[in-house]
Amino acid sequence: MKERLYEILNEEKAHEIIPFLKELTTEERKNLVPTIKKLDREISKIVMTKNSYHTAGSADQHAIIDIASFVCMDQKHYGKNYWSLFRNKEQTGKILEWGCPDWFSDFINDSIDAEFTAFNYQDILGWAEKGYVQPRPELLGYHLSLQPYDLEKSPETLETHFWYLCEFPSKSLPFKREWLPLVQKLIAENKIERKRFLRECLLAANRNFNKNVTGWFMDVFNILKPTDDELIMFQDELMAGLASVQSKAVNTMLAHLKKIVPAPAFKIGEFSHFVPNLLSSEVKTVVAASLTVTEKIFQKKKTGTENLAIALSAAFVSKDESIQTKTAKIIQKYIPASENMKEALSHYADNILANVKPLLAEYIEDKQLELDAVKTEKLELISEESQVKEPASFEDLMFFLPQAIENPGTYYYDLALGGLVRFADDADAQSVKLFEPVFQKACKTIAKWEVHHFNVLLCNLIINYGLSLLERFPVQLKNLEKIYKKTREDEATREAYSTYHKKLEPIQDIFAGGVAMEPFKHIAVYVFDKIISADRVPLLSTVTHEPCWVSPEALVERLEVYQTENIIPDDLDMQLALQRCSLERTSEVLKLVDKKLQGEYKDLLLFFFNENAAPKGKFEHPSWWMTAGITRHPKKVFKEFKNFGYDDIPEEFLTGVYDWKTIDSKKNSYYPVELNISIPKYHLKKRAHPLFMEYFIAEQKNFSEIPSFMWSFPNALGNVFAKIIKECLFYSGIAEVYERNLVLNTAQALHQMKKPLDAMGYLFLGTIFLDGDKVIRGTAAEIWLEHVSHKVMDNVRLGEVIGIHEKLEWAPVKRFTDLVQHQMLNVSKDHNLALEELLTHILLQMETPVTNLKKILDIYHEVLALNQSEADKNLKEKLNNWKENSSLKKICNLLLKK
What SS3 class is residue 603? Predict the structure, then answer.
């Protein structure tokens, strides 16, 4: 039986597969399934050629396996193959005639979840007629929506199935363009009942369809132009549609409800129930349309509007001045200042803008909102709360390593390396049993196509360590060999691809992910050598405090161990430790340095920890001294270092300060306004003592691990920010997921660090305030709030960055103004004062009026009112010029009066 299948496949006798399968019993077909699956894997293997690739099997061989799979397998094993077999409809029909599987009906009904199928609505009708399929309404509606033709071929199509289409349309595709004129024609010919279809269109608002399908039903409803009588008839459906999650549906309902407000049958009470949610919507068009309908009700109806009046107060949830002003005017004009109305508005009093309150003088007490001042806490980079918990034993390490694999990046990675140095040699016959799941996880992770660079190093290190343990504990770790062999086999299948880099070599031979990763690979090799030689002298660069800091005390204590053991530290490990060292309270550690260290260690740290000290002593390791100088004083040139040979490194890389400008690219309509940052080219130099930072600045490629490097240069982040800005933030309209993730990860890392910003930090923060991603903008606001609370935010510098961008309209102003209204306004007195300073310096950069400048000026006016301040005197001339613009005249005059 198996031999016959092999023969048919190898000789490509596709015409013989069906007769062969007909001869088999049910049991024989079932027994053939493992063979079919094995052959399928063999013919599906990818074969690489010089210019392309193809599968190992021919078209006939794939057809043979497709037929055999369908006939012999059950639904679970056959899977969701809605394409291959059904390409040949005639052949499929013949198979179904003599061997329709009992699962076929369920299989076809499940096809509504498929991305594509090779069968259609007419095929399903044919199968249903022959009894192969008992189609569910969902199946018929879904497939009919993809086929706007032959609707009158079967009487049940328009009588029944068309209404299934309304209830169960395609989930994955918007309606085809032919449907709209076809529906209009069928309604005109009375082949589709107009009123029933109009009702179905309205019901679509709450059927959880995707945005395109819901929008299609709303468009058809509008195009069919329902009469007022029809709208009154469907009033309940229109009201229900106000609860839709789709703003287009809600706006459609509001537009039609507005038409029937004058009708005596209009249900004011029911509409009132929906008003609070409508006015709380984040979609401004929904709020504005709701206010328009509400105002029209007050104009037309003199009674029965009490509940509607109370509900109207919910509009003050919005901090949009135009919304609040319109609401206040409706209240002022139509609603008496009753106790109930005053009570309703009192709940929103704190949210009503200072400029709107005068309109509501009869309804609310006009008292200044008293905000608390922020209790300033000193910003501490390292504290008892942020101290890391390191593995304390071999057993701890075994539980920690899987976490390190699951959380790629330098934090867990560094603690894992530190733990391996300390406890790798502690394995015994009992505890080593804990290592097998760790080894298995490392193998499973490294076997993937795309592996985080830090995971490549860590998993390789774990695997090579495991192979060394296998020699010591062959009985306890007997399964490691089998796991490793399987991983090697998986990797061997990928070696044919030129882009694949082997990951199961000795650690010194693997590709770690480019030039920037070389220092980490070097340290990983150093760690592996320490593991093999049972050298427990600690790494210098292992973090002591979250997220990336090495405490100065820990650095002194670790160097004392090296001094006692008479061991020279690894050059790159030493540099990384200096780069990560917290410099906020180093003066307190100078006595410890003087007491415990000698020679170059002592001289180096006395210079590094004393902000005003000059470098003194023997410069035996120039890379250490240079790293200390750059980290402590990035903008200072030390004459003592002039002979170190690093003068060929461009100044920007040493200082972390880059030239940048926002330019109007008039010739390039795709990128109309760009943020340009100048980063010099740099190639790694061959030198005896390369700097750790040289590997990062020499990296020419963009790579996803860039945010992780913030943990390696926490005192000097300029080079990291410059790379992210150049690659991901040159244009505000970038929408690619890869770039978005890089920027978000960088922003979140900056938020975790809680460190005062430098020049590039302000450029990065100011730019992401205008980013297209809402989460990124929200993170920027959180950074601002926290830095203002700690009194370490320079709002002048931040305002200049945002203003320089926006004077050329690098991004829509609305992104920034929405963020201010929802997250930054009225947090505290201090934050309002900081916001005033920020807005002032944004406006000072502006020249001619930009789109939505009025929105910034409105917020500025509100902040001045809250702070009881006046517009900055340097802005007066600009305001006088801008008031010539008709849309800005009113707000400019208001600001000039303050």
Answer: helix
Cβ pair 585, 609 in contact under 8 A: no
Instruction: Give, as one character, the DSSP assignment of residue 304.
Output: S
Contacts of 656 (CB under 8 A, 6+ apart): 634, 716, 717, 718, 719, 722, 758, 759, 760
Query: What value does the CA radius of gyration of the chain take, rounded to a whole number of Å?
Result: 35
Q: Are strands 46-48 and 53-55 parallel, antiparallel or unpaired?
A: antiparallel
Query: Two tokens at 250?
Result: 């809600």
DSSP 8-state secondary structure symbol assigned to residue 615: P
Distances (CA, A) of 548 to 475, 543, 677, 713, 753: 40, 6, 27, 9, 8
pTM recorded for the entire structure: 0.77
Rounded to 5 degrees, φ, ψ at 645 are 90, 15
Domain locations in the chain as residue ranges: 1-73, 267-362, 387-536, 539-646, 654-896
Which long-range contacts does 555-560 make (Cβ < 8 Å, 24+ apart)? 555/581, 555/605, 556/589, 556/592, 556/593, 556/596, 556/597, 556/605, 557/596, 559/597, 559/601, 559/605, 560/596, 560/597
Token pair 């192969």 is at which residue?
132
Closest by alpha carbon to 880, among 895, 864, 870?
895
Predicted confidence (pLDDT) per residue in 214-266, tens digit:
999 999 999 999 999 999 999 999 999 999 999 999 999 999 999 999 999 99
Q: What is the mean pLDDT of residues 297-322?
A: 89
Residue 675 phi/psi, 5-degree rounding, is -100, 110
In 3D space, the residue among 788, 649, 776 whose CA is nearest the CA of residue 719 turns out to be 649
Query: If you search the block for the tokens 């922020």, which residue do you land on?
Result: 374
Task: Please state, in angstroms and rounded to a whole number, the distance separating the CA atoms of residues 443 and 426.
Answer: 22
Report H helices in 656-716: 692-698
Bridge partners (DSSP) of residue 46 are 55
